[in-house]
Amino acid sequence: MAETSQKALQQQILIDDSNIPDWLLTEILQRLPVKHIFKFKCVSKRWFLLISDPFFARLYSTRINTSLSTSQPWNLLFRYLYEVRIVPSSMIDTRIALKQSQDFSSPGFSLNFLPYSKHDSPIKILASSNGLLLCCETFYWQKNYYICNPLIQQWIALPKPPKAIKSVAVGFICKDDHYEVIRFPTANYGPSSTLRLETFSSETGKWHCSIVNCPVMDYYIKTDSPVVHYNGSLHWLEFRHSKIITYDPHNGTNTRLHLMNLPDDRQSEHLSLLGVSRGRFRYFEVTDTCFGPRDLRVWVLSDNDAQRWCLEYRIKFSGSWIDEVNEFIPKDNFYIFPLALHPHEFDIVYLGYGGCLVSYNLGTRKLDVVHRNFYSHQLLAFVFSPWPTTIPQPFW
């Protein structure tokens, strides 16, 4: 009887926080891993109200940003592989490894919580925005879209688009509690300069179709380069005319796509991508020859209105990599392609090189192997939000 009473007393002590003032309980909760905080909302009504308060989220975000020696944690995600694989954080440069934060101390995370068909190839990662991922079951004939937060494993399925299209260019924008998905055909071979653009808005819960004008009739979107959200617009690399196609979904009078110039002195038509580093819009290319001297070049957009590009780096591989190459890659295996820009460091880029994923410091000319036996051309730099973005529950 005494033993039973002791257990009951222990349980009561564990759950009784009535003598703890709100400020002290908030200080305690602020020091917990964010992936556990969302679970602790269920402990009591008091805990739910404290954690749900926007003031708590602001405090938590401030503490995380202050405690980290660098900017927000991030990781590299594989986009279109037959298996969903993520580069373990232990293989990324220690200055930006996710293990800096106890919330991301595991070697990686999985998307297995998404309800895709087990008989089809695993989920495809299409885009990211504000700590959320846009995914789809297939690369071609996309119809089943999911938006998820991989940190707290929250997800929703979107209604199916109104029209089946074999290949689409997809953009994703999330701001506060509102998100949009924009898609249109990746190519146009017909005589018309108009195309059908489909937009899903979380505010309406529906797909909206509109006819927009395109400056070129025979465009072709480079789908192996992730769509980039910069300066309020979405940006896709266009292959046939060597341009950037842009679209501003928040311009109510905008009924057309726009073209943006690439750097005049670019050379590569295939091995290139767009990205954003520390808020700067950049273009990254490797000259596309397998023999002879090759260059790695990075430009930054210095004037958005005038579409003026400034060449930041131009590095010849043959002169800068000879010592590092001999350590791990045969000389006859010298195929190089750009994969990603570091979201927080101007000097660091990621390349596919001789069957390896490597990071390369443009300033120090130092090359490091991140992952061996690597043959993917599809990477996405995914930046975690300091406070996880929650997905509003669907009403459709």
Automatic annotation (TrEMBL):
Domain F-box: 14-59
InterPro entries for the chain: At3g26010-like (IPR055290), Beta-prop_At3g26010-like (IPR056592), F-box-assoc_interact_dom (IPR017451), F-box-like_dom_sf (IPR036047), F-box_dom (IPR001810)
Pfam families the record matches: b-prop_At3g26010-like, F-box
CDD domains assigned: F-box_AtFBW1-like (cd22157)
PANTHER family reported for this sequence: F-BOX DOMAIN-CONTAINING PROTEIN, F-BOX PROTEIN INTERACTION DOMAIN PROTEIN-RELATED
Name of the molecule in the record: F-box domain-containing protein
Organism: Gossypium mustelinum
